[in-house]
Records
---
Amino acid sequence: MPLQPLYLYGGPKPFIPPPWIPTNDTLRGGSSTSSLIPSTTHKNGVVFSGHLDTQTLGGAGFAAQFSPTEDVDPARWDLTEYEGMEVKIGGKGDGKAYTLVLKDDAASGSDDGYGLGEDVHYGNANGNQRREASLSWEARFDITKGEKKRDGEKGDVLNVWLPWKDFQATYRGQPVEGAGGWKGGRVTMVGFMMRR
């Protein structure tokens, strides 16, 4: 029997509230910004926007939004039986590349199994919050590529399918050798990122 779609966000599940957490290169002295606000055209959708500054840090930069940890539902976020994730993008998009970031149980503690971990400051809606840097699983996608469908009267929707093998291990944006692709499991945090 085929698995039913499981929505982490979107569909019947609103993105906000609670507010998502901005994590931008201002942590490293950059000036990139990001925001995630409710969509006015797609029910339970959001608009991810901001400014990617690639000058201040010498050609590099990142802007991201992460789901709030208090929004985690252990049963709803268990993706063990699934093979990948689909991102639905409404409208024409901007033709740029983005990154979907997942954190899992292995990355949520101080021992992530790869000898990684240090304190960094992550910005949130109320200022800076100290969190421990940990392993991330990242899949980059181009929003001009995917399967276009009509979404009622709302116009085109681009469905981008990301199998687990596309999610590669990174630590602070750098690849982690020998980790391979994500094998699935329970997700503890989801993020959208643009970087250069």
Note: The first strand starts at residue 21 and ends at 22.
---
Amino acid sequence: MPKKYNRIQYSKPNIPVHPSLSSSTAPSHHGAHTQAPESSTSVNDLIQHLRRSQAPPTIERSHSDSNPHPSVHPSLKSILQVPDTPAPRPRLQTAARRRQRGPAGPPPPRSWLVDSIHAPRSLRGGSASADSAHNVARRLDRLPGIYLPDEHTLMHLTLKSMAKNWTWHVEYDQYYLATLPELLKQALLAYIAVHSPQPTTRSALELLFLDETTLDDATGSEAITHLDLSGGTILKDLSKIFDKQPRTPTTAEDRTPIPDAWDAPSPTPFSAPTTRFPALTHLSLAHPPSPSWRALLSALPHLRSLTHLSLAHWPAPSLTPNAKTATLASPTGNVQYGASDIYSASDGNWSEGAGLLRRLGRGTLCLKWLDLDGCTAWLPALRWTDGEGAGGVDWTGAWRGVETVRCAQGWVPRGVDGRSEAGLQTREEARDEAALEWDVERERRRYRERVAKEAWVEREVEVRRVEAWVGARRRGRAGRVVFEKTAVEEWVDRALGERSRGGVDVN
């Protein structure tokens, strides 16, 4: 039998009608006759009425004031004598009235900003340690005798602008930089070392010193005598910069001629100078971002003609500066990985530094002027010797021609007024010893300044000890060496000289 299906009947739900849509005359409860309304309102009319009644007043005003007068073409205004249309009302600058808010949360304590290198100078309060470590002034005249235009000339402004936009010029003026005169190339590198936000690179130097074999009208680098590479990131490529690749012979005269017989002597092959700067005598490698004594020693074959060398603000001489705490395991115990450790300076063990300086002296026999500004922390390596009095820098041999050594610290404690047992004392400390209110921040600042001044005094004393030791070693054997120290007052220099003579053995 066929299966029966029960069909479900869906009934329409009984939805009550809105009172506004119902007729004005309601039917009576007694079944009276219903009359049709005289006027009926449609749904669209009710919706429009609700929109008008519920709209905010600001919108109505904006629509009414958006175009109060009909627009007329300017050529017809004079004919029809229509007044000019008033300018529209300015918009409300809500974004300008919004308060400029800083970072969320409370402001940082003042003690956090005193020692920060990113804090303004006013918040740092002239901290001696911060000024000495991070506010080292860079000099245009780092190398003596370099050509520098006057500050109020157009050449000065041009070189300064090129240095500030050096990356852009390397990208878009790369084929014009090589055509500059060699004197301007030397001055441009000095300006780049001071004013450029980014240090120069090896590729930029290669573009600057192209020769005529590569680019027409290029001036080359054969007559360059002063080279300022301060602040550059090219120390690892230093030897590659000085190396000049011999050009490939392209003409028939440059090619090696074919001999007439098999037993004929071979002609001299074509060769070119291997040094890019054959006339270089002044070199500056100051303020290196990533110094490398290994790279400097590997470039010594190209620096034999140097008479002036600047190594300002270099770290202590070491071939493994990042392995001072590393050790190697051995059957007898742990062995130091490098030649010096973190305690070498405090123990007076400058064997590695003195050995590297001795190698540097053997590669620069013509040296007469040495710049060691900011290197007073490792100046004892200049007078270190082993137990037998040898093994250090040879001041009477390789460096017997050195006449001037610049070894200033680059800063002087502020308000130098007198001496105390802890070092030099500022006028503020001398005048305000009995403070009415004890402040922890002021005491912390004074302590930091006192420690920095103690280190400053000790380094100045060490400079005078090195000067006395070198003078005693060269007495009767070579000329006198002049040590250009930090410019301080006469009484400070005299007091430091007394301390240095009392604590050094020149024999």
Note: Confidence is low (pLDDT under 50) at residues 24-38, 59-67, 126-134, 417-426.
